[in-house]
Amino acid sequence: MIKPIDLACIIDDDPIFVYGTKTLMELANFCKNFLVYQNGEEALKALVNLIESKSVMPDVILLDINMPIMDGWEFLDHIIKVPTEKSLTIYVISSSINPVDIQRAKSYSQVSNYLIKPMTIATLQQMMSELAPNM
Amino acid sequence: MQTSRVEDTFRTKDLEASKKELDVIGLETLKHAGVGRGYYDYATNFFHLDTVACKLHDLTNADAAFTFMKLRKLYLHQKSRQAIRIALDSLKKGEQKFDITLLLVTFRGEQKWLRVIGTLTHSLEAKETVGLLFMDVGSSTGVSRDIGSKEVLIDSFEHAISGIGMVNLNGRFIEANPYLCKMLGYEKEELLEKSLIDFVPPEDFEEMEHILVKFLTGKIHKYSGEKMYVNRKGHRIPIFLMISITKNTSGSPLHFVIQASNLFQLYQSKGKLASLLEIVTNQNKRFMEFTYIVSHNIRSHTSNLAMLTQLLKMKNQELTEEYLNYLDNSVEGLQQTISDLNEIITLHTNQSYDLSKLMIYNTIEASLQKHIFKSSIASKVIIQNSIPQTLGIVHSPKLLYCILNQIIENSVKFKKKDVDLILDFKHESNEQYDIIKISDNGIGIDLDRYHDQIFGLYKTFAVGNSNRGVGLFLVKHQMEALQGKVQLSSTLGKGTTVQLYFKKMMTYGEINLAGR
Prior knowledge:
- The complex is a heterodimer.
- Chain A has one domain: Response regulator (Rossmann fold, 3-Layer(aba) Sandwich).
- Helix content of chain A is 39%, strand content 21%.
- In chain A, helix 2 packs parallel to helix 3.
- Chain A is globular, with a radius of gyration of 14 Å.
- Chain B contains 15 helices and 18 strands.
- Chain B has a 6-stranded antiparallel beta sheet with strand order 3-2-1-6-5-4. In chain B, strands 8-7-11-10-9 form a 5-stranded antiparallel beta sheet.
- The longest helix of chain B is centred in the middle third of the chain and has 50 residues.
- Chain B is elongated, with a radius of gyration of 46 Å.
- Chains A and B meet through helix 1 of A and helix 9 and helix 10 of B.
- Chain A: InterPro entries: CheY-like_superfamily, Sig_transdc_resp-reg_receiver, TCS_response_regulator.
């Protein structure tokens, strides 16, 4: 039995996705705590704060692409420039099946994988096994 | 005396022999000189040729006698045949002799010029005949080729499908082919009263003069390029123009030869091709946009539905009120996206817009009535409208109203909270477009950040308002549906200006009037 991770972060403006993913995470015993942000800008501000105050960082970030104010790409462009003690684990998760988006996500070395919505229990379990060796 | 007698005797005695001798030698000499002989019999209509004449005509001795019909096959050129007919008739009418030059085409296809001398004689049976002598005057010297090619040249000149003419050193027309006359719109006699410069557009005068001077000073020998000329009706027509100069043997210029090919149709089809390409490019762009919307926006709702049903299937999940709401929202979102897509598709596939000339000032007023004067914020809005009340724009009334509504609605929605909204309407125009500029002093958009997303579907740049991110996307497509375009400039904190480019068009009524 894989142990749940401590802190997961969801950056998505779609309340249904956030609700569903949180429910699935609880059911799969994926994590102990969540952080949820509605767009890239909100997430960036909060995460930079956490980094600067040397607080506990999320073990995994699930990042949506299409969001108002600051989209996933802009968030990535900013966050990769922020120096961190431990490197961040980021999964891009989007409903877009456009190959252009998939290629673009893969061009960031900090992005672990590109996942296509909907979120499923199986996806979460796969992520847990990928994250386990790092913990 | 003795001597004289001897001489006399010699003359008398040998005269007959000498005559015979002369006949033989004469014939031999003619043969060596390549002169062919023959005769034509009026009664039988037959030509009879000797060996040399046969050879000249490229005939075997077996063909040495033939009718006038066969002759027609040898003298293919109508002018040559006519000349023979006229010459033979002239002898009948009392002439003693004829001397003509004819173009012959042998059965081997060789062309040669023959000089034919005919004299009226009477045969032994006292029949009326024409004695004929044939001499090759062309093929060996190359004259025939020259004269032949001159005929061909004249023929091409008359029937050319480009304008060809000659202009003297003062620029006056001295020769013009029918096509050139047609292009310029004058009869040949009229054209010969005109100068080249009469057809040059004023802005090209200097250049044309410059070119002709270069010819005269020997700096150039030919010129070619795409030019415009002005025809009799004053229309400008594109041509490919070639100019060359002819000179006499001592090298002094004689006259200019000009040649002009009409490029009007080529330009027209080039234009058509370019506009077709533009349509295809735009359709392709829209197709890509649609693909993205389908691959992303529709999927975002269906994946939510998939996730929710997945959760429902799992144990200990109840169908709560909250849950039902989420399901509801997903379905509604999906329906909305499909209906938005449908609207765009209809916009571009509906080719039969009911176009009419609309007074844009009035349309703006109507839109302001709806969104401002009758709303709660009426007292907080200042309108500056400098658009001429008489300005008409050809457009679809429904589309134009939608476009203006959307832009005014946006200005109201993104108004600064504690500052009165100033809405400014201006008109500008250029050759192609009437431009309506609508500016506000609202919160503005950071275009450095969002310039590539501003007209995108479901793109929103602020949180917490009812904006769906559809308005500007629709405006863009509504403008493009009637060959217009939209541009937006904005400064964060200062305001936004939307520029609507309306393609200048004529209504069908006006087109019909102009056509008359």
